[in-house]
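**Fold tokens**
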Amino acid sequence: MKKGLLFAVLLMFFLSCKENKNEVVKEADTTSEPPHKRELNQPFLWNAANIYFLLTDRFNNGDTLNDISLNRTKETAVLRGFMGGDIQGITQKINDGYFTDLGVNAIWFSPIVEQIHDNVDEGTGSTYGYHGYWTKDWTALDPNFGTRKELEVLVKTAHKNGIRILMDIVLNHTGPVTELDPIWPKEWVRSEPVCDFTDYVSTTSCTLVENLPDIITESDTAVELPDALMAKWKEEGRLSNELDELQVFFDRTKYPRAPRFYIIKWLTDFVNDLGIDGFRVDTAKHVDEKTWKELYHEASYAFNVWKRKHPDEVLDDNPFFMVGEVYGYGISSGREYDFGDKKVDYFDNGFHSLINFELKDDANMDYEAIFSKYNDLLFTELEGKSVVNYLTSHDDNNPFDKERKKPYRAANVLLLAPGASQIYYGDESVRSLNIQGTKGDATLRSFMNWGELDSIGNNKAVLSYWQKLGTFRGHHPAIGAGRHQRLSKNPYVFGRTYADGEFKDKVVVGLDLPKGKKFLWVKGFFGDGTKLYDTFSKTFVTVENGKVFLENDFDIALLELAKN
């Protein structure tokens, strides 16, 4: 009895120590079943995905031991140094149910491969590669972000929770050149001219900015591996293994040893080894489109190999997914992006979806104008393809509602618009986009405001609202992939319908509803006597004379068929 009591006291002491936020954290517990495991009772559709985009370094610090690595201790400009966020921090929030509570079914995090070791100033102040877009070695993870094992745990934990992983990849350029980070050989990269974006060539065969060497992706000429890279691999004890793997890859594919094919091999290794579900492709329009078709082909091959090797871990039969950042592309452009002298159909070159830069402007239109426009385009010009909508991002200095004064409208527009949705970390928590002392896009990249969710009532209320809409979206593919139908102008009510084989999904949404007693017109969509459930007010209702009656203080209703 005394031994049992002593054990209980020691256990309570241990747990209390783990609660101390100042305690060094090293390992995430993945031995127990996730407490918020998603109900997989409907098909997952990338066309309807609810994607959460975060900067790995700015989201959650799961391992304080990796906050400083590679002697990155120089002073930086405001919000331009590493701040501690890491892979393990993402895993912790998956286990906490944070993403599931938001209805998120895919996570896109900024690149985590090894970054340049030194800092540079591109005109906005001293900066390290905290953002992940300055690659030094595509075959290694940056120690500031975590380890390969931690990435494996992240992917497995996400999959157990019904969440897909989108890996952010950069094939267009290396990181800037510094004293610690020499330029790649001239056979690999060009260092001039700087792009002027006047036509196709001046957008693809050039450097984005000065001192950002551009990979010569259009070349088919075989090149040798950089001496600096091989020396690094040798020092790390993996030179032989890397060379052997490259030999196997080129023997299988018969590709020439041109720069792009080395990088394609290195990127698709993450898919082959870990079961990464998709790529978000950075700077897609700055690379010739055939490269993306080749990347998609190899990523799909790797994904299928992983599925064959891990049949018990396969979520479904969805193919590998690629979404491209063709900067400036809008849904109204349909299938093609216009360079001025040439039009390119990226959807025919490896991409299932493109990021839609148009919604942040469309968000000022009335709801029906937005929803009907997107429905019409997605079921005509973009039939079988889709877009990923966003309102704020890491590098768009003109987002919707930069002052965060319209968080509820932002939720309604983003999470109810046809197409896939991309929540940028902090959209749901009113994280400030105006940080004093910052220059350029750094103001968009502050650390996630976890503390405000506990202490500020407005932030908690906004988060609760986003959770309700996100969960509804996550449970109903009809929202993003279904056909839109306006049912009533005043009050504004619409329906969405999705059907594929035996699976059918129908929902009705009301917006800008009067508070108190109200009705929603559903005639022709749901028949009289149909029992429905309003997930927002948690109320069961029955259709009577083509109407549904509610009485509450909410101006929104999210109706689904009541479960038997």
The CA atoms of residues 125 and 422 lie 29 Å apart. The radius of gyration is 25 Å. The longest strand covers residues 492-500. Residues 1-40 have pLDDT under 50 and may be disordered.
